[in-house]
Amino acid sequence: MGGVRGFERRLVGDAGDLPYHQLTVRSLRSAGRSPHTLLDPLRLAAATPQAWRVLGRLRPAAVFSTGGYLAVPLVAAARSRGIPSIVWEGNVAPGRATRAIGRFATRVAVAFPPTAKAFGERAFVTGTPIRSFAGLDRAAARAEVGIGDDDRLLLVFGGSQAVARLTAALEESLAVIVEDWVVIHLAGEAGMEAAAAARDRLPGPLRDRYRPDPFLTDRMAATLVAADLVLGRAGSSTCAEVAAVGVASILVPYPYAHGHQTANAAWLAEHGAAVAVPDAELTGERLRTEVAALRDDVSRERIAAAARRLGRPDAAHDLASALLELADATA
Fold first, then answer.
1. What's the rounded mean pLDDT across residues 148-155?
2. Is the dihedral of CA 138, 144, 149, 151 positive or negative?
3. List of domains in the chain
């Protein structure tokens, strides 16, 4: 079940074998004032009885929601029908909608331990569901990616799309960084032309050390395992994956969206599990400095080990188990 403009609609539609139940509510609220400021409460009011009717037809044993604005009608309808629910919150600082609807959920799963305080006794820590890294050997992964034994691999990515701030800092510092690092850069389709131009500006012998790619898709897991350092945003999935793999990272949190990523990056940094750099401070010079400091294997391994201690690679299994337990209890 989802909204009218969320990614989940495309995701389920592409799968082809799952029914999609669309609510009138939009999956994401608009920032600032707009006509949607008035329309969203009306859509929300209409979506709650709509969700109630859908749940009446489906008769699920339990409901799972990833929180946010869309969870409000779904979890409210589930409670009114006596259907148990789990809401999952992926950020250190929960959003307003999740805080509100968390009071109606049967249980609240959280990705980060500090978040549990916002929901009291009903909260439990699972981590963030991520891709599986089980059975991936680092030596084999490095061979698959084409990284030599003496090379250090820097993986740069911005989440679901290329990030201008990361790209600009990388391009400015690229000629220096590739002297010590092989750089794999997820530039996105729109960024490939600029990335190719940046590669062409490098001295000939260094060009092979910069490898832009629009998307890694099924190669992403192996590349993360092969990496010595990651530069990326601080979304819940990125934080969870660098911790599960146990790789050092420089996290540059997205500065908007109520500062959720800033809190995520700060929590990892406080535990020595990442280096956090504010978005506004990421210049080419700052990136060169941070990457040069992490060229030292001992310093980098200290961060990687701290990240590994925080990792929860079994989050998806733990969430599924909790959901099935809740469903069995009402059967």
1. 96
2. negative
3. 7-128+314-330 (3.40.50.2000), 138-310 (3.40.50.2000)
